[in-house]
Amino acid sequence: MSVPSTDPMIGRLIDGRYQVRSRIARGGMATVYLATDLRLERRVAIKIMHGHLADDNAFKIRFIQEARSAARLAHPNVVNVFDQGQDADMAYLVMEYLPGITLRDLLKDYGRLTSEQTLDILEAVLSGLAAAHKAGIVHRDVKPENVLLADDGRIKISDFGLARAVNNNTATGQALLGTIAYLSPELVTRGIADARSDIYALGIMTFEMLTGEQPYVGEAPMQIAYQHANDTVPMPSSRVPAIPRELDELVLWATARDPEDRPRDAKVMLDQLHDVSALVRGGTQELALQSTMVLPASMRTGVNALADAETQVLGAKLAPTKPPAATLLGLHPVGTGPVGPPDSGDLLSKKADKRKRRGFWLFALVILIAAAVGGTGWYFGSGPGSDVSVPDFASASPEAASSQLTELGLVPELGGAFSATIAEGLVIGTDPDAGSRVPQDSTVTIIVSQGLQPITLPTLAGLSQEAASAAITDLKAVVGSIDPVFNGDVPDGSVVSANKESDGADVSAGGAYFEGLTVNLVVSLGAIPNVDGKTVAEATDILVGKNLLVVSGEQTYSDTVAEGDVITAQVPEGTIREGATLTLVISRGPEPVTVPDVVGKSWGEAKGILEAADLKLEYNIFADAAPGLFTVTKVTPGAGESVPKGSTVKINFSA
Domain PASTA: where (predicted)? Predict the structure, then answer.
């Protein structure tokens, strides 16, 4: 017998649209579930704020801030946010679902990464952060847990839950946000964060990827925070000597204690990373010089000088055997260039002839291109080769769609498909899709809704709740309400009955139904426990343990149940659910009898009367030999007294 899911969110339909399937992860602010968007028929990740935080406006505002921050970003290396809302008292956020692992999982499995792997992940994360910084957003919680490595190879940064606008970077007395292992010195000491704080966290994360460990450890968070504020991050090669010097200097640049000494944002660091990548991925010294070559200081000012300073920080300060300025100025080593200047007159004459010939061909080429462009523009703009954009006919009538396509010079053709969102008889879409450009006279299929797709439900009665729910959702129907009831004929946790939410029809033995519609389940809680013969305390504990209420009822006589114990628990009529009230019938012990008056009667007559009263008799057995000769003179207890059934009565005779 399977055990029903203990998470009440599993199977729940949120906002009439998102069907919760399973739990993915649980964090400090929210739990993330895998869900199906029934409207768009796609899998999504839905983040639901913990219930105890729902009444905290600060947490709710931070939760909504995550949605707004992430929704402003549209980048291949940032997890997309699709929707945000509130269902009753539950705030939720709908995001792109990426099957895969986090960078933290990868580090747990492999310890540390190669230089090439580190560079690949850094490039993706920096690309996403560069888009965020350009939009004025600081992530504030860069760490391996928030870097997602999808199964299809995509790398994305997620969880902008602590994000804030760049211009809102001063502390206001709030507690520090972010994971302590990645906090920048300015966040620790002043509570201030900007784009350079993200760069510092990324530098710490790079150190961890290269070495498999964090630069600072301590028994308490404050010890780690103190090191961030006062110590200089060591070079990764001090832990793993094989790490290239260029990556050492990249980490030192990103983790400088003074924010002014770091890259000003992710774009600056990403540009330099490309040069470092060329060096690390097997480039020769000559290639390294070419990729980082800059003009001499005497020929640079302003931004170029700053760029040179950043290049030198990264170890690109290598002197070539011949100053690069020499080549730029047209000088050549001995034996490799012109020996002397050519005759000036001949040179000028040749250059003039060359210019004339080049001018003629350029003019001819311009005329030819203009003619080609004009002809092509006519052919594709208004001639027989012109394309037509397919309109969007969603929810329109097929007749209106056919008429409009014909007017556009296209050939309409009807097709059909089932839909849970578009009413039967209306247009779902077209093939090719709306917005596609197709040549005139092309055939465009109008896809008309056939309504909900029929399905056949299996027999649900007798299945476990988990198995019945899976059977329903596998067929793209929806699990509705779960009604737990006590039932002595169906095992605990199994389905008693099922019904269609649309019309209440019974579907316990399965049958025809439709995708997207809801099935309600009645699930057994098992039989109500038998408490006959138990003490009142024992019976109460047992029934309360099943979430039933207990009250004491009438007291009655019982020949089999001891006085004060429970004879039975009376159950209300109809369906019994948790919270129902049961009434205990309590024993008063055996019912008493009145001792008959047999004094003066013969023993033969008296004996029959006393035995009929369920009394035990104590007497001289010789009286049985001649019962007519003996007369009862006394009974103890006396006649008229009440005694329990089965009590012993003593009889005295006279002859």
Answer: 385-450, 522-588, 589-655
Helix (H) or strand (E) holding 273: helix 266-280
What was the pLDDT predicted at 590?
86
Average pLDDT, stretch 309-335? 31
Q: What is the DSSP string of 17-56?
A: TEEEEEEEEE-SSEEEEEEEETTTTEEEEEEEE-GGGTT-
The string of pLDDT tens digits covering residues 548-577 is 999 999 999 998 999 999 999 999 999 999
Query: Would you say residue 241 has pLDDT above 90?
Result: yes
Give the other-Cβ count within 10 Å of 23's Cβ.
15
List domains and CATH numbers for the chain.
13-96 (3.30.200.20), 100-282 (1.10.510.10), 387-449 (3.30.10.20), 454-524 (3.30.10.20), 536-587 (3.30.10.20), 592-654 (3.30.10.20)
Q: Quote the CA–CA distance of 313 and 485 in Å, as a whole number.
A: 72
The answer to whether 446 and 405 have CB atoms below 8 angstroms apart is yes
CA 399 to chain centre: 43
Q: Would you put residue 600 in left (φ > 0), alpha (ψ -120 to 50) or beta?
A: left
pLDDT in tens, 211-240: 999 999 888 888 888 899 899 999 999 999
pLDDT(594) > 80? yes
8 A C-beta contact, residue 627 and residue 572: no
Tokens 């492999």 label which residue? 110
DSSP letter for 640, please: T
Q: What gap in Å lies between CA 470 and CA 448, rounded to an integer?
A: 30
Spatial CA neighbour of 156 closest among 95, 208, 82: 95
pLDDT band, very low/low/confident/very high, at 188 (cuts 50, 70, 90): confident
Is the predicted pLDDT of residue 170 greater than 90, yes or no?
no
Assign 3-class secondary structure to 285-314: HHHHHHHHCCCCHHHCCCHHHHHHHHHHHC
